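Request: Show me your protein:
***
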Amino acid sequence: MKSSSPPPLFSSDDSQESVDISNYQSPRIFKNKRKGAWWDGNESAQYTPEPKKTKMTRNFDSGVYMMSDATDSSEDPLPQHKSPFPLGLDDSESPVLDPRTAAFNERIRLGLDNNHETYDFQGLGLEDENIKDVGRIASVIKAVPDPGDQLPEEGQFRSMEPEIYVDFTKNHLHRLTPKIFDIQYLTTLNLRSNAIVELPQEVARLRNLRILNVSLNKLESLPFELLSLFEPYGSLIRLHTMGNPLLEPMSSARFANDARVDPLHALVLARDDLPIDYQRDEASYHLPNLYRDLATSPDRERDVWRIRYFESWENSFRAGNDTHEDVEGEDMGFYEHHPSLRLRDVSHRVPRFIARTSVSYFDQAGCLIENSPALPTAGQPYSVIVETNHGAYGVPFSWFKPWSRPTVPSLVTMSLQSALRSRHFDDRSIEYIRNLLTNPTEAIPRSIDAVFTQAIANDTGGWGEFRKCHVCKKDLIVSRAQWVEFWAVGPSTIVPLKVKVCSWGCVPVKVANRPEKELVW
Protein backbone atom coordinates (compact mmCIF):
# COMPACT_ATOMS: atom_id res chain seq x y z
CA MET A 1 0.00 0.00 0.00
CA LYS A 2 1.42 3.34 -1.02
CA SER A 3 2.06 5.77 1.77
CA SER A 4 0.21 9.09 1.69
CA SER A 5 3.11 10.84 3.42
CA PRO A 6 5.75 12.66 1.33
CA PRO A 7 8.98 10.68 0.77
CA PRO A 8 11.83 11.36 3.20
CA LEU A 9 14.58 13.76 2.13
CA PHE A 10 18.21 12.94 2.90
CA SER A 11 21.41 14.89 2.45
CA SER A 12 24.74 13.36 1.62
CA ASP A 13 28.35 14.47 1.51
CA ASP A 14 29.40 11.77 -0.92
CA SER A 15 27.39 12.33 -4.05
CA GLN A 16 28.00 9.52 -6.50
CA GLU A 17 28.04 11.81 -9.51
CA SER A 18 29.84 14.96 -8.39
CA VAL A 19 32.57 13.84 -6.07
CA ASP A 20 35.54 16.15 -6.34
CA ILE A 21 37.77 18.25 -4.14
CA SER A 22 35.34 21.17 -4.09
CA ASN A 23 32.84 19.09 -2.20
CA TYR A 24 35.14 19.07 0.78
CA GLN A 25 36.20 22.70 0.72
CA SER A 26 34.98 25.21 3.27
CA PRO A 27 32.69 27.02 3.33
CA ARG A 28 30.22 24.48 2.07
CA ILE A 29 27.65 25.96 -0.25
CA PHE A 30 25.10 23.20 -0.02
CA LYS A 31 24.74 19.54 0.63
CA ASN A 32 23.67 17.11 -2.01
CA LYS A 33 20.16 15.98 -1.35
CA ARG A 34 18.05 13.13 -2.60
CA LYS A 35 14.63 11.66 -2.01
CA GLY A 36 13.89 8.13 -0.91
CA ALA A 37 15.24 5.68 1.62
CA TRP A 38 18.91 5.82 2.52
CA TRP A 39 19.56 2.46 0.87
CA ASP A 40 17.97 3.50 -2.37
CA GLY A 41 20.87 4.77 -4.43
CA ASN A 42 19.24 4.77 -7.84
CA GLU A 43 17.78 8.25 -7.66
CA SER A 44 20.03 11.10 -8.52
CA ALA A 45 21.51 12.98 -5.59
CA GLN A 46 21.49 16.19 -7.64
CA TYR A 47 18.00 17.24 -6.77
CA THR A 48 16.54 20.69 -6.72
CA PRO A 49 15.07 21.24 -3.26
CA GLU A 50 11.43 22.15 -2.91
CA PRO A 51 10.65 25.81 -2.36
CA LYS A 52 10.45 26.76 1.30
CA LYS A 53 7.13 27.68 2.86
CA THR A 54 6.46 31.29 3.63
CA LYS A 55 7.35 32.11 7.19
CA MET A 56 4.53 33.86 9.09
CA THR A 57 5.64 36.76 11.22
CA ARG A 58 3.87 39.18 13.58
CA ASN A 59 4.67 42.67 14.63
CA PHE A 60 4.89 41.55 18.25
CA ASP A 61 4.44 38.44 20.31
CA SER A 62 1.01 38.98 21.86
CA GLY A 63 0.26 35.39 22.72
CA VAL A 64 -3.33 35.92 21.51
CA TYR A 65 -4.11 37.23 18.06
CA MET A 66 -6.62 40.07 18.43
CA MET A 67 -6.22 42.03 15.18
CA SER A 68 -3.28 43.97 16.61
CA ASP A 69 -0.75 43.36 13.83
CA ALA A 70 -2.22 45.99 11.49
CA THR A 71 -3.38 43.35 9.00
CA ASP A 72 -6.51 43.87 6.99
CA SER A 73 -9.63 42.18 8.29
CA SER A 74 -13.26 42.16 7.32
CA GLU A 75 -14.37 41.97 10.98
CA ASP A 76 -15.68 45.06 12.75
CA PRO A 77 -13.31 46.73 15.21
CA LEU A 78 -13.90 46.29 18.92
CA PRO A 79 -16.30 48.83 20.52
CA GLN A 80 -14.85 51.74 22.40
CA HIS A 81 -14.30 51.09 26.09
CA LYS A 82 -16.94 52.54 28.38
CA SER A 83 -16.47 53.07 32.09
CA PRO A 84 -18.72 50.93 34.33
CA PHE A 85 -18.95 53.80 36.80
CA PRO A 86 -21.46 56.67 36.70
CA LEU A 87 -20.19 60.10 35.77
CA GLY A 88 -17.80 61.44 38.31
CA LEU A 89 -16.97 58.11 39.97
CA ASP A 90 -13.81 57.38 38.03
CA ASP A 91 -11.02 59.27 36.31
CA SER A 92 -12.34 58.89 32.77
CA GLU A 93 -13.38 61.89 30.74
CA SER A 94 -16.83 63.12 31.78
CA PRO A 95 -18.84 66.33 31.77
CA VAL A 96 -18.17 68.81 34.55
CA LEU A 97 -20.35 67.94 37.53
CA ASP A 98 -21.88 70.13 40.19
CA PRO A 99 -19.22 70.31 42.96
CA ARG A 100 -21.75 68.94 45.45
CA THR A 101 -22.51 65.96 43.20
CA ALA A 102 -18.80 65.35 42.65
CA ALA A 103 -18.10 65.46 46.40
CA PHE A 104 -21.02 63.10 47.06
CA ASN A 105 -19.93 60.63 44.36
CA GLU A 106 -16.34 60.72 45.59
CA ARG A 107 -17.41 59.73 49.09
CA ILE A 108 -19.42 56.84 47.68
CA ARG A 109 -16.45 55.71 45.57
CA LEU A 110 -14.08 55.76 48.54
CA GLY A 111 -16.60 53.91 50.67
CA LEU A 112 -17.14 51.21 48.07
CA ASP A 113 -13.39 50.84 47.48
CA ASN A 114 -12.93 50.16 51.19
CA ASN A 115 -16.18 48.22 51.58
CA HIS A 116 -17.48 50.61 54.25
CA GLU A 117 -20.94 50.23 55.81
CA THR A 118 -21.13 53.82 57.14
CA TYR A 119 -21.68 56.79 54.79
CA ASP A 120 -21.65 60.29 56.28
CA PHE A 121 -22.92 63.12 54.03
CA GLN A 122 -23.58 65.71 56.72
CA GLY A 123 -23.56 69.38 55.81
CA LEU A 124 -22.64 69.05 52.12
CA GLY A 125 -25.53 71.28 50.98
CA LEU A 126 -26.96 68.38 48.96
CA GLU A 127 -30.21 68.63 47.03
CA ASP A 128 -32.24 65.77 45.59
CA GLU A 129 -30.52 66.06 42.19
CA ASN A 130 -27.09 65.58 43.79
CA ILE A 131 -27.79 62.17 45.36
CA LYS A 132 -29.11 60.22 42.37
CA ASP A 133 -26.24 57.71 42.60
CA VAL A 134 -26.92 56.82 46.23
CA GLY A 135 -28.30 53.46 45.08
CA ARG A 136 -24.73 52.28 44.39
CA ILE A 137 -24.33 51.79 48.14
CA ALA A 138 -26.53 48.72 47.74
CA SER A 139 -23.49 46.89 46.31
CA VAL A 140 -21.67 46.93 49.68
CA ILE A 141 -20.59 43.47 50.83
CA LYS A 142 -19.98 42.84 54.51
CA ALA A 143 -16.28 42.44 55.22
CA VAL A 144 -15.23 38.98 56.40
CA PRO A 145 -14.26 39.18 60.10
CA ASP A 146 -10.70 38.47 61.13
CA PRO A 147 -10.71 34.81 62.17
CA GLY A 148 -7.86 35.47 64.58
CA ASP A 149 -9.90 37.94 66.64
CA GLN A 150 -13.50 36.88 66.11
CA LEU A 151 -13.60 33.11 66.17
CA PRO A 152 -17.27 32.04 66.33
CA GLU A 153 -18.33 29.46 68.82
CA GLU A 154 -19.19 25.98 67.66
CA GLY A 155 -22.48 25.99 65.77
CA GLN A 156 -22.72 29.78 65.89
CA PHE A 157 -24.10 31.50 62.79
CA ARG A 158 -22.50 34.81 61.86
CA SER A 159 -24.56 36.90 59.46
CA MET A 160 -22.72 38.23 56.43
CA GLU A 161 -25.47 40.76 55.59
CA PRO A 162 -24.16 44.35 55.83
CA GLU A 163 -25.70 46.88 58.21
CA ILE A 164 -25.59 50.10 56.22
CA TYR A 165 -25.74 53.51 57.93
CA VAL A 166 -26.49 56.61 55.81
CA ASP A 167 -26.50 60.12 57.28
CA PHE A 168 -27.93 63.10 55.33
CA THR A 169 -28.10 65.49 58.30
CA LYS A 170 -28.13 69.25 57.53
CA ASN A 171 -28.68 69.25 53.77
CA HIS A 172 -31.42 70.61 51.47
CA LEU A 173 -33.37 67.48 50.55
CA HIS A 174 -37.08 67.89 49.73
CA ARG A 175 -38.38 64.62 48.24
CA LEU A 176 -35.37 62.28 48.32
CA THR A 177 -34.61 60.09 45.30
CA PRO A 178 -36.12 56.69 44.41
CA LYS A 179 -32.67 55.07 44.38
CA ILE A 180 -32.30 55.39 48.14
CA PHE A 181 -34.97 52.73 48.58
CA ASP A 182 -32.94 50.23 46.52
CA ILE A 183 -30.50 49.83 49.42
CA GLN A 184 -31.85 46.54 50.74
CA TYR A 185 -29.66 46.35 53.85
CA LEU A 186 -30.07 49.97 54.95
CA THR A 187 -30.54 49.75 58.73
CA THR A 188 -30.15 53.42 59.79
CA LEU A 189 -31.33 56.42 57.77
CA ASN A 190 -30.73 59.88 59.24
CA LEU A 191 -32.60 62.69 57.45
CA ARG A 192 -32.43 65.21 60.28
CA SER A 193 -32.47 68.96 59.48
CA ASN A 194 -33.61 68.96 55.85
CA ALA A 195 -36.67 70.37 54.08
CA ILE A 196 -38.62 67.16 53.44
CA VAL A 197 -42.34 67.81 53.04
CA GLU A 198 -43.48 64.25 52.33
CA LEU A 199 -42.06 60.76 52.74
CA PRO A 200 -42.89 58.56 49.71
CA GLN A 201 -44.83 55.31 49.91
CA GLU A 202 -41.69 53.48 48.75
CA VAL A 203 -40.21 53.81 52.24
CA ALA A 204 -41.96 50.50 52.96
CA ARG A 205 -39.33 48.75 50.78
CA LEU A 206 -36.67 49.25 53.48
CA ARG A 207 -37.51 45.98 55.24
CA ASN A 208 -34.29 45.96 57.28
CA LEU A 209 -34.55 49.57 58.49
CA ARG A 210 -34.24 49.76 62.29
CA ILE A 211 -33.75 53.50 62.92
CA LEU A 212 -35.38 56.35 60.98
CA ASN A 213 -34.69 59.97 61.97
CA VAL A 214 -36.79 62.62 60.21
CA SER A 215 -36.51 65.28 62.92
CA LEU A 216 -36.46 68.98 62.00
CA ASN A 217 -38.16 68.71 58.61
CA LYS A 218 -41.51 69.97 57.25
CA LEU A 219 -43.65 66.87 57.67
CA GLU A 220 -47.31 67.20 58.71
CA SER A 221 -47.98 63.48 58.42
CA LEU A 222 -46.28 60.23 57.44
CA PRO A 223 -47.35 57.69 54.78
CA PHE A 224 -49.52 54.86 56.08
CA GLU A 225 -47.12 52.41 54.42
CA LEU A 226 -44.55 53.28 57.11
CA LEU A 227 -46.62 51.13 59.47
CA SER A 228 -45.42 47.97 57.72
CA LEU A 229 -41.84 48.65 58.88
CA PHE A 230 -42.65 48.29 62.59
CA GLU A 231 -42.65 45.03 64.48
CA PRO A 232 -44.04 42.46 63.94
CA TYR A 233 -44.09 43.32 60.22
CA GLY A 234 -40.62 44.84 59.86
CA SER A 235 -37.50 45.76 61.82
CA LEU A 236 -38.13 49.42 62.72
CA ILE A 237 -37.69 50.04 66.46
CA ARG A 238 -36.92 53.77 66.64
CA LEU A 239 -38.65 56.66 64.86
CA HIS A 240 -37.57 60.25 65.56
CA THR A 241 -40.01 62.99 64.46
CA MET A 242 -39.26 65.94 66.77
CA GLY A 243 -39.23 69.40 65.23
CA ASN A 244 -41.82 68.70 62.51
CA PRO A 245 -45.20 70.48 62.25
CA LEU A 246 -46.92 67.11 62.69
CA LEU A 247 -50.64 66.83 63.28
CA GLU A 248 -50.73 66.21 67.02
CA PRO A 249 -54.16 66.33 68.65
CA MET A 250 -52.72 64.53 71.67
CA SER A 251 -49.12 65.31 72.58
CA SER A 252 -46.96 62.73 74.30
CA ALA A 253 -46.49 65.00 77.32
CA ARG A 254 -50.23 65.52 77.72
CA PHE A 255 -50.98 61.85 77.18
CA ALA A 256 -48.62 60.59 79.91
CA ASN A 257 -48.57 63.48 82.40
CA ASP A 258 -50.98 63.22 85.31
CA ALA A 259 -50.05 63.72 88.96
CA ARG A 260 -52.93 61.48 90.05
CA VAL A 261 -51.76 58.48 88.05
CA ASP A 262 -50.48 55.64 90.22
CA PRO A 263 -46.92 54.34 89.57
CA LEU A 264 -48.07 51.21 87.75
CA HIS A 265 -50.31 53.23 85.45
CA ALA A 266 -47.48 55.63 84.63
CA LEU A 267 -45.15 52.69 83.93
CA VAL A 268 -47.55 51.22 81.38
CA LEU A 269 -48.01 54.56 79.64
CA ALA A 270 -44.25 55.11 79.43
CA ARG A 271 -43.19 51.60 78.41
CA ASP A 272 -44.35 49.77 75.31
CA ASP A 273 -41.68 47.09 75.59
CA LEU A 274 -43.16 45.46 78.69
CA PRO A 275 -44.20 41.80 78.36
CA ILE A 276 -47.43 41.21 76.48
CA ASP A 277 -49.19 39.53 79.38
CA TYR A 278 -48.23 42.37 81.72
CA GLN A 279 -49.62 44.94 79.31
CA ARG A 280 -52.84 42.99 78.92
CA ASP A 281 -53.33 42.55 82.68
CA GLU A 282 -52.65 46.22 83.35
CA ALA A 283 -55.12 47.22 80.64
CA SER A 284 -57.82 45.06 82.28
CA TYR A 285 -57.01 46.65 85.63
CA HIS A 286 -57.06 50.30 84.58
CA LEU A 287 -59.99 50.37 82.12
CA PRO A 288 -62.82 50.18 84.71
CA ASN A 289 -61.22 53.00 86.70
CA LEU A 290 -60.81 55.19 83.63
CA TYR A 291 -64.44 54.71 82.60
CA ARG A 292 -65.62 55.37 86.17
CA ASP A 293 -63.68 58.63 86.52
CA LEU A 294 -64.40 59.93 83.02
CA ALA A 295 -67.36 62.08 84.08
CA THR A 296 -65.28 64.00 86.63
CA SER A 297 -61.97 64.02 84.74
CA PRO A 298 -60.34 67.45 84.26
CA ASP A 299 -59.17 66.30 80.81
CA ARG A 300 -61.78 63.98 79.32
CA GLU A 301 -60.25 63.91 75.85
CA ARG A 302 -56.92 62.72 77.24
CA ASP A 303 -58.59 59.99 79.29
CA VAL A 304 -60.57 58.80 76.25
CA TRP A 305 -57.27 58.43 74.37
CA ARG A 306 -55.92 56.42 77.31
CA ILE A 307 -59.01 54.22 77.28
CA ARG A 308 -58.44 53.43 73.61
CA TYR A 309 -54.72 52.86 74.33
CA PHE A 310 -55.49 50.18 76.93
CA GLU A 311 -58.33 48.69 74.89
CA SER A 312 -55.95 48.18 71.96
CA TRP A 313 -54.10 45.70 74.20
CA GLU A 314 -57.12 44.07 75.76
CA ASN A 315 -58.97 43.62 72.47
CA SER A 316 -55.95 41.85 71.01
CA PHE A 317 -56.58 38.86 73.30
CA ARG A 318 -60.31 38.54 73.00
CA ALA A 319 -62.14 35.97 70.94
CA GLY A 320 -65.09 38.18 70.14
CA ASN A 321 -66.62 38.25 73.62
CA ASP A 322 -66.35 40.44 76.69
CA THR A 323 -64.76 37.85 78.98
CA HIS A 324 -61.03 37.63 79.47
CA GLU A 325 -59.67 34.42 77.94
CA ASP A 326 -56.17 33.14 77.23
CA VAL A 327 -56.81 32.73 73.54
CA GLU A 328 -55.17 34.39 70.63
CA GLY A 329 -57.24 37.17 69.14
CA GLU A 330 -56.91 40.17 66.86
CA ASP A 331 -57.47 43.87 67.16
CA MET A 332 -58.39 45.01 63.70
CA GLY A 333 -58.55 48.63 64.83
CA PHE A 334 -62.28 48.58 63.96
CA TYR A 335 -61.45 48.80 60.25
CA GLU A 336 -60.94 46.04 57.72
CA HIS A 337 -58.12 47.86 55.90
CA HIS A 338 -55.86 47.68 58.97
CA PRO A 339 -53.19 45.01 59.20
CA SER A 340 -53.95 42.19 61.58
CA LEU A 341 -52.15 42.54 64.91
CA ARG A 342 -51.39 39.09 66.26
CA LEU A 343 -49.69 39.88 69.53
CA ARG A 344 -49.36 36.48 71.21
CA ASP A 345 -45.83 35.82 69.92
CA VAL A 346 -44.65 39.44 69.96
CA SER A 347 -42.42 40.49 72.84
CA HIS A 348 -41.77 44.15 71.97
CA ARG A 349 -43.71 47.23 71.02
CA VAL A 350 -46.15 47.01 68.13
CA PRO A 351 -48.16 49.79 66.44
CA ARG A 352 -51.75 50.18 67.61
CA PHE A 353 -54.57 52.25 66.15
CA ILE A 354 -55.89 55.01 68.43
CA ALA A 355 -57.93 57.63 66.52
CA ARG A 356 -58.72 59.14 63.11
CA THR A 357 -60.07 62.20 61.36
CA SER A 358 -63.17 62.38 59.16
CA VAL A 359 -62.79 61.47 55.48
CA SER A 360 -62.13 64.21 52.93
CA TYR A 361 -63.66 63.49 49.49
CA PHE A 362 -62.41 64.92 46.18
CA ASP A 363 -63.64 65.03 42.59
CA GLN A 364 -61.72 63.85 39.51
CA ALA A 365 -59.73 67.09 39.45
CA GLY A 366 -58.69 66.72 43.09
CA CYS A 367 -60.95 69.52 44.33
CA LEU A 368 -62.74 69.11 47.64
CA ILE A 369 -66.39 68.09 47.30
CA GLU A 370 -68.84 70.66 48.63
CA ASN A 371 -69.70 70.07 52.31
CA SER A 372 -66.93 67.49 52.67
CA PRO A 373 -64.58 68.13 55.63
CA ALA A 374 -61.19 69.48 54.59
CA LEU A 375 -57.96 67.67 55.26
CA PRO A 376 -56.52 68.60 58.66
CA THR A 377 -53.72 71.16 58.64
CA ALA A 378 -51.21 71.86 61.38
CA GLY A 379 -52.22 74.92 63.37
CA GLN A 380 -55.90 74.71 62.32
CA PRO A 381 -58.69 73.11 64.42
CA TYR A 382 -60.02 69.75 63.22
CA SER A 383 -62.12 66.98 64.72
CA VAL A 384 -60.61 63.65 65.79
CA ILE A 385 -62.74 60.55 66.36
CA VAL A 386 -61.71 58.06 69.06
CA GLU A 387 -63.77 54.86 68.91
CA THR A 388 -63.85 52.81 72.11
CA ASN A 389 -65.68 49.63 73.08
CA HIS A 390 -68.41 51.77 74.68
CA GLY A 391 -68.86 54.29 71.87
CA ALA A 392 -67.12 56.97 69.82
CA TYR A 393 -65.78 60.24 71.18
CA GLY A 394 -65.29 63.43 69.16
CA VAL A 395 -67.83 62.70 66.39
CA PRO A 396 -68.49 65.98 64.52
CA PHE A 397 -71.99 67.42 64.59
CA SER A 398 -72.36 67.28 60.78
CA TRP A 399 -71.40 64.15 58.89
CA PHE A 400 -70.72 64.12 55.16
CA LYS A 401 -71.27 60.96 53.13
CA PRO A 402 -71.04 60.89 49.29
CA TRP A 403 -74.15 60.10 47.30
CA SER A 404 -72.60 56.98 45.77
CA ARG A 405 -69.64 54.64 46.32
CA PRO A 406 -68.30 53.79 42.83
CA THR A 407 -65.16 51.66 42.66
CA VAL A 408 -64.71 51.80 38.86
CA PRO A 409 -62.85 54.92 37.68
CA SER A 410 -64.49 57.19 35.12
CA LEU A 411 -63.81 56.85 31.40
CA VAL A 412 -61.80 60.10 31.48
CA THR A 413 -59.59 58.81 34.29
CA MET A 414 -58.98 55.44 32.62
CA SER A 415 -58.19 57.08 29.26
CA LEU A 416 -55.69 59.52 30.75
CA GLN A 417 -53.98 56.82 32.78
CA SER A 418 -53.72 54.58 29.71
CA ALA A 419 -52.22 57.41 27.67
CA LEU A 420 -49.67 58.18 30.38
CA ARG A 421 -48.66 54.52 30.67
CA SER A 422 -48.10 54.34 26.90
CA ARG A 423 -45.56 57.17 27.02
CA HIS A 424 -43.03 54.85 28.66
CA PHE A 425 -42.87 52.64 25.57
CA ASP A 426 -41.70 55.57 23.41
CA ASP A 427 -39.87 57.46 26.17
CA ARG A 428 -42.17 60.46 25.90
CA SER A 429 -42.67 63.20 28.49
CA ILE A 430 -45.93 63.97 30.24
CA GLU A 431 -46.02 67.34 28.49
CA TYR A 432 -45.76 65.58 25.10
CA ILE A 433 -48.80 63.38 25.86
CA ARG A 434 -50.65 66.42 27.15
CA ASN A 435 -50.09 68.28 23.87
CA LEU A 436 -51.31 65.28 21.87
CA LEU A 437 -54.59 65.06 23.78
CA THR A 438 -55.44 68.74 23.85
CA ASN A 439 -56.40 71.28 21.23
CA PRO A 440 -54.13 74.34 21.34
CA THR A 441 -56.94 76.56 20.03
CA GLU A 442 -59.35 75.60 22.81
CA ALA A 443 -59.11 75.70 26.57
CA ILE A 444 -58.26 72.37 28.14
CA PRO A 445 -61.05 70.96 30.38
CA ARG A 446 -60.38 71.57 34.07
CA SER A 447 -60.52 67.88 35.03
CA ILE A 448 -57.96 66.91 32.36
CA ASP A 449 -55.67 69.83 33.14
CA ALA A 450 -55.73 68.94 36.85
CA VAL A 451 -54.75 65.32 36.18
CA PHE A 452 -51.77 66.34 34.04
CA THR A 453 -50.72 68.97 36.57
CA GLN A 454 -50.80 66.40 39.37
CA ALA A 455 -48.99 63.84 37.19
CA ILE A 456 -46.16 66.32 36.59
CA ALA A 457 -45.98 67.08 40.32
CA ASN A 458 -45.89 63.36 41.17
CA ASP A 459 -43.13 62.73 38.63
CA THR A 460 -40.81 65.40 40.02
CA GLY A 461 -37.53 63.83 41.06
CA GLY A 462 -38.09 60.66 39.03
CA TRP A 463 -40.90 59.21 41.15
CA GLY A 464 -43.29 58.55 38.27
CA GLU A 465 -46.78 59.89 37.83
CA PHE A 466 -48.61 57.07 39.64
CA ARG A 467 -49.20 56.32 43.31
CA LYS A 468 -50.83 53.26 44.87
CA CYS A 469 -54.28 53.11 46.44
CA HIS A 470 -53.92 51.97 50.04
CA VAL A 471 -56.94 49.65 49.93
CA CYS A 472 -57.09 48.09 46.43
CA LYS A 473 -53.43 48.75 45.42
CA LYS A 474 -54.44 50.13 42.01
CA ASP A 475 -52.63 53.05 40.38
CA LEU A 476 -53.86 56.55 41.04
CA ILE A 477 -52.77 60.03 40.02
CA VAL A 478 -55.34 62.11 41.88
CA SER A 479 -56.62 60.56 45.12
CA ARG A 480 -60.39 60.66 45.53
CA ALA A 481 -60.45 60.39 49.34
CA GLN A 482 -57.99 60.93 52.19
CA TRP A 483 -57.96 60.84 55.99
CA VAL A 484 -55.42 60.71 58.81
CA GLU A 485 -55.09 57.98 61.42
CA PHE A 486 -53.17 58.25 64.69
CA TRP A 487 -51.17 55.23 65.82
CA ALA A 488 -49.15 54.54 68.96
CA VAL A 489 -45.71 53.32 67.86
CA GLY A 490 -43.63 53.67 71.01
CA PRO A 491 -43.59 54.87 74.64
CA SER A 492 -46.38 57.48 74.60
CA THR A 493 -45.48 58.19 70.96
CA ILE A 494 -48.46 58.76 68.66
CA VAL A 495 -47.83 59.57 64.99
CA PRO A 496 -50.21 60.71 62.21
CA LEU A 497 -50.42 58.42 59.16
CA LYS A 498 -52.16 59.62 55.99
CA VAL A 499 -54.34 57.20 53.99
CA LYS A 500 -55.02 57.80 50.27
CA VAL A 501 -57.46 55.81 48.10
CA CYS A 502 -58.33 55.86 44.41
CA SER A 503 -62.15 55.93 44.66
CA TRP A 504 -64.95 56.70 47.07
CA GLY A 505 -65.77 53.01 47.10
CA CYS A 506 -62.33 52.21 48.53
CA VAL A 507 -63.17 54.05 51.75
CA PRO A 508 -63.98 51.25 54.24
CA VAL A 509 -67.65 51.15 55.23
CA LYS A 510 -66.95 51.68 58.93
CA VAL A 511 -64.85 54.73 58.09
CA ALA A 512 -67.42 56.20 55.70
CA ASN A 513 -70.43 55.68 58.00
CA ARG A 514 -71.16 57.74 61.07
CA PRO A 515 -70.46 55.75 64.28
CA GLU A 516 -73.66 54.14 65.51
CA LYS A 517 -72.92 54.76 69.17
CA GLU A 518 -71.33 57.77 70.83
CA LEU A 519 -69.59 57.77 74.19
CA VAL A 520 -71.65 59.39 76.95
CA TRP A 521 -70.98 59.91 80.66
